Amino acid sequence: MLETDLRNFLIAAPTISALVAQRIYGLIREPNTPLPSINVQRAHTQRQELFCGVAPLADASMQIDSFGIDGDTAWAVAKALRLLFQNLTNVAMGPTLVQKMFLANEFPMVDPDPGIIRVVQLYNVWYLED
């Protein structure tokens, strides 16, 4: 699954693990989770229908949120993610082959948890489905 493979890829990246260790989660950041941390979730997946069936190359929109107790920390995690994925092409993330991944949008948000800063990044991920 793309989400699991992406999470494992992030944990294995020294620049990311130095900032968040293994605090990389799925859909929801639980209250009182140690910070900084990252959440990974799929916003949508688009597939192309061909005359002979569905194309194996899918386009997923992945939302990766960087959380910090202050803006500097959250933006530092977001920057490390941006640099890690910059010019990413033809990379095996576990069994998932990512053909292209790029940042489509990035913006800060105030988290419902008081004092927590969240930077949202939306990535387009072109990958081969099995």
Structure description:
- The N and C termini lie close together (10 Å).
- This protein has helices at 2-12, 14-20, 71-85; strands at residues 24-25, 37-46, 49-50, 53-54, 57-68, 88-93, 96-110, 117-128.
- Helix 2 (14-20) packs antiparallel against helix 3 (71-85).
- It has 130 residues and is α+β, with helices and mostly antiparallel strands.
- Strands 1-2-5-8-7-6 form a six-stranded mixed sheet. It has a two-stranded antiparallel sheet with strand order 3-4.
- It has one domain: STM4215-like (2-Layer Sandwich), CATH 3.30.2000.
Task: Describe the protein's topology.
Layout: H1 2-12, H2 14-20, E1 24-25, E2 37-46, E3 49-50, E4 53-54, E5 57-68, H3 71-85, E6 88-93, E7 96-110, E8 117-128
Helix pairs in contact: 2-3
CATH class: Alpha Beta
Low-confidence stretches: none
Tell me what the CATH architecture is: 2-Layer Sandwich
| SSE order, one letter for each helix or strand | HHEEEEEHEEE
Give the beta-strand count: 8
In angstroms, what separates the terminal alpha carbons? Answer: 10 Å
Indicate how many domains the architecture comprises.
Answer: 1
DSSP summary: helix tally: 3
What helical percentage do the residues reach?
25-40%
CATH topology category name: STM4215-like
What characteristic shape results from the CA principal axes?
elongated
Average pLDDT, to the nearest integer?
91
Strand order of the largest sheet: 1-2-5-8-7-6
Q: Approximately what portion of the residues adopt beta-strand conformation?
A: over 45%
Q: Describe the main β-sheet briefly.
A: 6 strands, mixed
Rg is 15 Å
Structural class: alpha+beta
